[in-house]
């Protein structure tokens, strides 16, 4: 699945790492799935995690990216 998304958005990993070089490979993968517009339930199923864990990952990633409370993670990722 990850390879399919990378083929659709080949410049995305390079672009997001240019802006946020401290992203881990797991965080980058999570961003790829968000870029692909996967719902939280799809993310949970794909990553074999609970919905609550997905919520926590979103919160921590949003904080790491320096986004405000009002800014949506999905909107930010899509713009990159």
Features:
0% strand, 80 residues, mainly alpha, Rossmann fold, single chain
What does this structure look like?
- There is one protein chain.
- With 80 residues, the chain is an all-alpha fold.
- It has one domain: 3-Layer(aba) Sandwich (Rossmann fold), CATH 3.40.50.2300.
- Helices cover 69% and strands 0% of the residues.
- The chain has 6 helices and no strands.
- The chain has helices at residues 2-8, 12-19, 25-35, 40-47, 51-64, 73-79.
- Helix 3 crosses helix 6.
- The model has no long low-confidence stretch (mean pLDDT 94).
Sequence of secondary-structure elements: HHHHHH
Spans where pLDDT lies below 50 across 5 or more residues: none
Q: What is the tally of helical segments?
A: 6
- Over all CA atoms, what is the radius of gyration? 12 Å
Largest sheet: none
Q: Which CATH class is shown?
A: Alpha Beta
Instruction: Give the averaged pLDDT, no decimals.
Output: 94
CATH superfamily: Response regulator
What is the third-level CATH name, the topology? Rossmann fold
């Amino acid at each position: 699945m990850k390879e399919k998304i990378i083929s659709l958005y080949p410049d995305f990993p390079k672009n997001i790492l240019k802006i946020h070089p401290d992203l881990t490979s797991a965080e980058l993968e999570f961003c790829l799935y968000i870029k692909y517009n996967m719902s939280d339930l799809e993310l949970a199923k794909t990553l074999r995690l609970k919905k609550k864990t997905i919520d926590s990952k979103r919160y921590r990633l949003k904080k790491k990216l320096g986004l405000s409370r009002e800014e949506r993670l999905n909107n930010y990722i899509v713009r990159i």
